[in-house]
User: Which sequence fits this backbone?
């Protein structure tokens, strides 16, 4: 049994001082239910998560005590991807007909401050100043630029595109395009990445209604089919965040393994994808993920960005809603935002940011600590 | 567990610079006023192992992938009894101009 997405809901990302994270999640669910023309009583199951805003299953207090199976998912940046993966299996297996996937969060301002013990590390690692994700991102792209001839101009191009696309997206947090000079002259955060090259922790909620493909038209006239949902963790030797040491062996990142599995399961290749959302926690991530997901060779991004291949009107539009850079990262909701955006594009509802020529197949990719990756392939 | 001598020199595999004072769990005697940016990198040892480390060098001009590095010990802070708590860091193995 194939799986369809028939309801989309989002509480705008950014800052909403008057609402808790949970309330933003509930708002997203109500919008998704309305989009699917149904109500919460019809939901047979739910998978959901938030990192900093409490238990997703307490959403039932706001949405209805209907007795449904509600499972909380906690998988860092891949929480949304893992929730969707679980929902996919629940329907694919025949266990359920229709259910809900939801993610939300509300983070404090400024960078995350993870604790070493939560990641299996000793206190010295944090006390001496190595427990910062920003350092890892800076170091990974620094080495990548050295190995594959990526210039600083390409980093700037990715940031410029993100804020330009954000300016076309009504639900985005950053809705003002930034000039080349503004990005170029922003304060340095972690060499070679400056302030406008990183996304920020934020707030927001996102929800999807999923169902058996054969009943999809009961809910929505334009269902989007989830061809596959894959989550993979790291292999020994891949270069991941919070690693006090790296072995001599070098392994591919979990993005590579998740991507390869997803293409194989969906029976399509990178050349079949019309629109993609790739994890862009910072500009280097988007650049590296273009190659790790199989869309181009390592180093080819330099030409792709210069030629506008990943612009909305290009051959492979990437992060059409401005990605994490323009939307911020409410961790629990972020991966679902990518799926939401691909569904909007495949429905043809993208408005000012609509990808031309009626895209048929879309792709989402999320990556997070400590080395986990989720890939979804969707088609109309 | 078997002890292994990894040596104390290597080459710089990648680097960045921590330009602002981290939040907790960072714990030194510094204040936001006295904080000094520090380099962070992975140093590739002769055996192929890469070790993550603070770096003494803290400007882009001083750091190049592939440059020879050596280990040194530095004081992180003093504890309640005044004992100095030490950690390792790497620095350029050759005098820089």
Assistant:
């Amino acid at each position: 049994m194939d799986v369809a997405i028939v309801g989309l809901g989002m509480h705008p990302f950014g800052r909403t001082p008057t609402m808790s994270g949970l309330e933003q999640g509930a708002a997203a669910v109500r919008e998704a239910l309305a989009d699917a023309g149904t109500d919460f009583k019809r939901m047979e199951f739910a998978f959901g998560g938030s990192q900093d805003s409490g238990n997703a299953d307490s959403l039932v207090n706001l949405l209805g005590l209907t007795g449904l199976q509600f499972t909380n998912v906690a998988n860092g940046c891949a929480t949304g991807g893992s929730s969707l993966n679980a929902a996919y299996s629940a329907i694919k297996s025949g266990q359920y007909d229709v259910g809900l996937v939801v993610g939300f969060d509300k983070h404090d301002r400024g960078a995350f401050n993870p604790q070493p013990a939560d990641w299996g590390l000793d206190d010295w690692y944090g006390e001496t100043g190595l427990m910062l994700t920003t350092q890892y991102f800076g170091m990974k792209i620094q080495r990548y630029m050295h190995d594959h001839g990526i210039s600083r101009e390409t980093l700037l191009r990715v940031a410029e595109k993100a804020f330009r696309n954000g300016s076309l997206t009504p639900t985005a947090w950053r809705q003002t395009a930034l000039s080349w000079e503004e990005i170029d002259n922003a304060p340095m955060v972690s060499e070679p990445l400056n302030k406008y090259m990183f996304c920020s922790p934020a707030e927001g909620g996102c929800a999807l209604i999923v169902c058996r493909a054969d009943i999809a038209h009961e809910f929505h006239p334009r269902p989007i089919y989830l061809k596959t949902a894959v989550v993979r963790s790291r292999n020994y030797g891949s270069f991941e965040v919070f690693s006090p040491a790296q072995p001599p062996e070098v392994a591919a990142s979990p993005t590579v393994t998740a991507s390869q599995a997803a293409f194989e399961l969906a029976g399509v290749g990178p050349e079949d994808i019309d629109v993609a959302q790739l994890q862009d926690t910072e500009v280097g991530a988007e650049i590296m993920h273009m190659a790790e997901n199989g869309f181009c060779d390592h180093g080819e991004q330099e030409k792709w960005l210069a030629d506008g291949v990943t612009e909305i009107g290009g051959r492979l539009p990437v992060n059409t809603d401005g990605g994490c850079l323009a939307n911020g990262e409410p961790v629990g909701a972020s991966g679902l935002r990518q799926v939401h955006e691909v569904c909007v594009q495949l429905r043809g509802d993208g408005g000012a940011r609509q990808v031309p020529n009626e895209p048929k197949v879309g792709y989402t990719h999320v990556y997070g600590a400590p080395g986990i990756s989720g890939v979804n392939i969707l088609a109309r | 567990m078997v002890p292994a001598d990894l040596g104390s020199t290597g080459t710089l595999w990648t680097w960045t610079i921590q330009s602002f004072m981290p939040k907790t769990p960072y714990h030194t005697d510094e204040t936001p006023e006295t904080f000094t940016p520090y380099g962070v990198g992975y140093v590739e040892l002769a055996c192929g192992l890469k070790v993550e480390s603070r770096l003494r060098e803290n400007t882009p001009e001083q750091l190049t992938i592939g440059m020879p590095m050596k280990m040194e010990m530095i004081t992180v802070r003093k504890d309640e009894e005044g004992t100095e708590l030490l950690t390792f860091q790497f620095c350029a193995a050759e005098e820089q101009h």
In short: Chain B touches chain A through 30 residues (CB under 8 Å).
